[in-house]
Amino acid sequence: QAQFVESGGGLVQPGGSLRLSCACSLFTFGFYTMSWHRQAPGKERELVASIGSGGGALNYVDSVKGRFTISRDNAKRMVYLQMNSLKPEDTAVYYCNINPPNRAYWGQGTQVTVSS
Q1: What is d(CA 8, CA 106) in angstroms, rounded to the nearest whole number?
Q2: What is the DSSP string of 47-74?
């Protein structure tokens, strides 16, 4: 069973930055489109960003365009999410997964809280 372990979350003031990391044990990691998702309290989980297997085909939800950057390192089986100019509405638990997501791969996520 593949594991996805997210890290890098924390408490940050509005306008601040965080870099999330996701370590993936999936042996065939390099073949998959990868994605970051988030779930805020009382809301559905939403797709935030995705990246193609070769590092191209970048897609972002409108609310984070220009502020977030997704990247990956296939040799290390890692996915990253650089988040700049953070806003209180970015507060959520952030998860990584393949895309489309496999329900078996949801990890614990990492909490991001944007507050002054």
Answers
A1: 17
A2: EEEEE-TTS---EE-GGGTTTEEEEEET
Reported residue count of the chain is: 116
Asked if residue 112 lies in contact with residue 10, where contact means CB atoms within 8 angstroms, the answer is yes
What is the token pair recorded at 59?
A: 């897609």
pLDDT in tens, 85-116: 999 999 999 999 999 999 999 999 999 999 99
User: How far, in Å, CA of 114 to CA of 89, rounded?
Assistant: 8
Q: Give residue-wise pLDDT tens across range 52-70.
A: 999 999 999 999 999 999 9
d(CA 83, CA 38): 13
Tokens of 24: 């993936």
Q: Which amino acid is at 109?
A: G
